[in-house]
Write a structure and sequence with these properties.
six-stranded mixed β-sheet; 36% helix; 326 residues; 6 strands; binds iron/sulfur cluster; globular; Uracil-DNA Glycosylase, subunit E; alpha/beta
């Protein structure tokens, strides 16, 4: 490793440490040197998104696109939550308070956190997309409505990502699901198979779902972006603006009660806040399109940072309690 590479590694480690401490606005981007208020004022004045990197989340700066292949090598056992019906791993604390017969916390975790639900918009929120006119069909069953949205999307060429894709990855799962997961974009495996979350990160997501006593077929899984960005780069604003209305239409067809945003990109997109940090919003409940939205870490991030599994487990217990509270 050269001196420069060592310096880069040290710098990245410092940035991640600051982020985990909750220190805001630490970034290598020159924008960081400006006050947050200045950036927000710019955004408000222009009605556009905050400059890229205005608040880089070091914990996710290296997070690959949804389903992107993680580094080679077997996943350590500690990477995955417990299978359905089993106790959490030894390093995962048991649910707080007395457990019910079903093994679900019977304390305040069971109550819908209505008092904690916060509005989705925050300073720095992006303007609504000019393409946000895709409406979910009003008639028909959820599968029928979802099929109409897929038909409306067609062999989409609406943004530049179409030229590099192998397969358009629309979504998979139960069209009548109470729980929906939203990731970022297809990775290599997803692009090849046309199904979201099928790589190692997808396998971990399946285990996470099973950890709250559901099967993968019970939920619906989709991404903000339907086509793989080249080299798993982050989707660009114009691509998000073009594609996200179809995600919103999917949500409106399915009408899930709970949505889990996987990773900072999905959270920022759904919360309309490009400056938010996943470490700040994870585990909180936001009102979103008639559902309760809970951001949490992306499974691909967990594969590289298994020590964050504990937080995801806490978030998923909250998801489970919301679902069971009816
Ligand atoms: S990413 Fe979305 S908008 Fe772009 S081509 Fe694919 S389906 Fe169409």
């Amino acid at each position: 490793m050269t001196d420069r590479e060592q310096l880069e590694a040290h710098l990245q480690a410092h940035l991640e440490f600051f982020r985990e401490l909750g220190v805001e606005g630490v970034s290598r981007d020159p924008v960081w040197r400006r006050r947050a208020g200045d950036v927000a004022a710019d955004v408000g004045a222009a009605g556009a998104t905050a400059p890229a990197g205005a608040e880089a989340d070091a914990a996710e700066a290296s997070e690959p696109a949804a389903g992107a292949s993680p580094p080679a090598g077997p996943a350590p056992p500690a990477d995955v939550p417990p299978p359905a019906g089993s106790a959490p791993p030894a390093d995962v604390p048991p649910p707080a308070g007395p457990a019910s017969a079903a093994g679900v916390p019977a304390s305040s975790e069971m109550a819908p956190p209505s008092a904690d639900v916060v509005p989705p918009l925050a300073s720095g929120a992006v303007a609504l997309s000019m393409f946000d006119r895709v409406e979910a069909p009003a008639d028909g069953s959820p599968p029928e409505r979802l099929a109409q949205v897929r038909e409306q999307l067609g062999p989409c060429t609406r943004c530049k990502l179409h030229s590099g894709r192998t397969t358009l990855v629309f979504g998979v799962g139960n069209p009548d699901a109470d729980l929906m997961f939203v990731g970022e974009a297809p990775g290599r495996d997803e692009d090849r198979e046309g199904i979201p979350f099928v790589g190692r990160a997808g396998q971990l997501l399946t285990r996470i779902i099973e950890a709250i006593d559901l099967r993968r077929d019970d939920v619906y899984i989709a991404n903000v972006i339907k086509c793989r960005p080249p080299d798993n780069r982050n989707p660009e604003p114009d691509e998000v603006q073009t594609c996200e209305p179809y995600l919103f239409a999917q949500i409106d067809c399915i009408r899930p009660r709970v949505i889990v945003a996987l990773g900072s990109f999905a959270a920022r997109t759904l919360l309309r806040d490009e400056r938010t940090s996943i470490t700040r919003v994870r585990g909180k409940v936001f009102a979103f399109r008639g559902a309760q939205l809970i951001p949490t870490f992306h499974p691909a991030f967990l594969l590289r940072s298994p020590d964050r599994k504990r937080e995801v487990w806490e978030d998923m217990k909250l998801v489970r309690s919301l679902l069971r509270a009816g």
